[in-house]
Amino acid sequence: MTKKEKALYIQEQLDILYPETPVPLDHEDAFTLLIAVLLSAQCTDERVNKITPLLFAKAKTPQEMIQCSVDEIQAIIRPCGLSPAKSKAIYTLSHMLLEGHNGEVPASFDALERLPGVGHKTASVVMAQAFGVPAFPVDTHIHRLLTRWGLTSGKNVIQTEKDAKKLFPKDRWNKLHLQIIFYGRSHSPARNPKKAIDYITDTIGTQKAKRELK
């Protein structure tokens, strides 16, 4: 099976499994999504969704966020981990949005990636899910699965993103990256994947991945 054939098979199967792709992080607008994605670094979506209502009850706009101190923000978001860095980033980027973007989250990869705490993956999620701009955010699930499926070398996430964008239609990127994440969580975990459950890997995966399923 060629990589293009694999890509088509993956799309077909994921459309059956996940016809709808709700955004995993609860949010109301681009700003609350940006904060939620920032908090999700090295933290589960489930935990972020428990913490953001507490934070947004206090501040859910840049204007409100700068009225809080870094310590106040940190006290709320501590369960998400990395709270010293994340709280400073949230406070500082809120100031930057007010000073440079009229309090609005910019619909620009470059502008987003200039904000503290916002890397390429976070910017890609915001562009895709808040603004509908085609992007292919690569998290650990996507990096693992595209490697496991023999669609990328697994060298690094940058290469994985390039390979994914070459293989899959641009108009499918935003939905597909969520579908792959959902599949990774429910069917193809990093440890002890099961052949009966992880049927996509069993069908198209690399020889190494197939050995892992035995």
Please provide a written account of the structure:
This protein is mostly helical. The protein has helices spanning 3-17, 30-39, 45-58, 62-65, 70-77, 83-100, 109-113, 120-131, 140-148, 157-167, 173-186, 199-204, 207-213. It folds into 2 domains: 3-21 and 136-213, Helix-hairpin-Helix base-excision DNA repair enzymes (C-terminal) (Endonuclease Iii, domain 2, Orthogonal Bundle); 30-131, Hypothetical protein, domain 2 (Endonuclease III, domain 1). Helix 2 (30-39) runs antiparallel to helix 8 (120-131). The longest helix has 18 residues, at 83-100. The protein is elongated. The two termini are 21 Å apart. The mean pLDDT is 95.
